[in-house]
Write a sequence for this structure.
């Protein structure tokens, strides 16, 4: 059986979920389906209790990323550290060394989109980041592959699970903002610093990635006009309900002629719009293409296994082509 060696950087929510799916939950199924055996050879992780909890051999642990980017026994690097510059530097090194990279790290991808894709092109390695937008929803691969024959005019999405969870719990259960945020943190949806979620920074990162793929135009995330949900009150939610709709944090980009406009902001969505039915940590990405028409992708946008599912999909796609 063909063997492909994997390194995982960071055993947090997504790194752990990825290992869980690849090496435990669906190991046999993946082997049968692909004819490939995946071996975890290296882990960049200081917290040995995380290795122990997942049953990973402690000898896999390294603390120097060069021992991964230069290693002969690593084919695919999974970067799930979080952060921006540090992980981006590691990913660039790995790509330049010919190792394919998979990451769910939207902040690092959005800030370094051009540099990382250039590094991949230079060495011929693959750079895949399906899990960076919409968690388990395979929208990026669909946009890049199945929908590649379309000119897109609009992309509109609920791309942050934490804020959608908070708005849903406030609107449907009457929870306070603080209570709902605390629960989203407990469930592992929120970023390490939830300001990134509630102020729309995370959604802007994801919109930057979507915009690059849909419109072939890179917009740095800091140039995206954004407003988060920290100013949304219970009375705003009740007013929206009385008008037959809901408030959702919407990331959108529209192309009219040569003009691309984009924003992240709380938006009134009428109940008869498909995005109004997207609740809790679920995400949805609604695209309009000139051939396909309107299309909506829907699924869990956060959490260990949904996001790990997208990472594993990328790993398998790369491994199949090695
Ligand atoms: N904090 C993010 C969210 C995690 O809530 O959507 C998934 O990107």
């Amino acid at each position: 059986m063909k063997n492909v060696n994997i390194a995982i950087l960071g055993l947090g929510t997504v790194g752990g979920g990825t290992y869980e799916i690849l090496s435990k939950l669906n190991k046999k199924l993946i082997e049968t389906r692909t004819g490939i055996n995946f071996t975890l050879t290296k882990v960049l992780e200081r917290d040995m209790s995380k290795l122990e909890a997942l049953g990973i051999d402690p000898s896999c642990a390294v603390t120097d990323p060069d021992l991964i980017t230069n290693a002969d026994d690593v084919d695919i690097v999974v970067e799930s550290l979080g952060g921006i510059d540090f992980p981006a530097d590691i990913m660039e090194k790995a790509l330049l060394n010919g190792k394919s990279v998979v990451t769910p790290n939207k902040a690092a991808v959005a800030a370094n989109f051009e540099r990382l894709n250039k590094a991949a092109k230079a060495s011929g390695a693959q750079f895949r980041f399906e899990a960076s937008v919409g968690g388990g929803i395979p929208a990026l691969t669909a946009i890049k592959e199945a929908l590649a024959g379309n000119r897109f005019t609009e992309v509109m999405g609920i791309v942050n699970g934490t804020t959608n969870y908070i708005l849903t719990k406030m609107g449907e259960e009457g929870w306070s903002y603080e209570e709902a945020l605390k629960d989203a943190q407990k469930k592992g949806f929120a970023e390490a610093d939830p300001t990134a979620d509630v102020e729309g920074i995370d959604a802007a990162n994801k919109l930057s990635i979507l915009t690059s793929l849909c419109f072939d135009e890179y917009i740095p995330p800091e140039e995206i006009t954004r407003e988060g949900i920290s100013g949304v009150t219970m009375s705003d939610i009740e007013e929206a309900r009385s008008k037959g709709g809901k408030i959702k944090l919407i990331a959108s980009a529209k192309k009219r002629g040569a003009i691309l406009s984009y924003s992240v902001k709380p938006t009134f969505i009428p109940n008869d719009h498909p995005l109004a039915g997207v609740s809790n940590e679920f995400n949805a990405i609604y695209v309009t293409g000139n051939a396909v028409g309107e299309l909506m992708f829907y699924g869990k946008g956060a959490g260990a296994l949904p996001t790990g599912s997208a990472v594993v999909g990328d790993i398998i796609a790369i491994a199949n082509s090695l």
User: Anything to note?
Assistant: DSSP finds 14 helices and twelve strands in the chain.
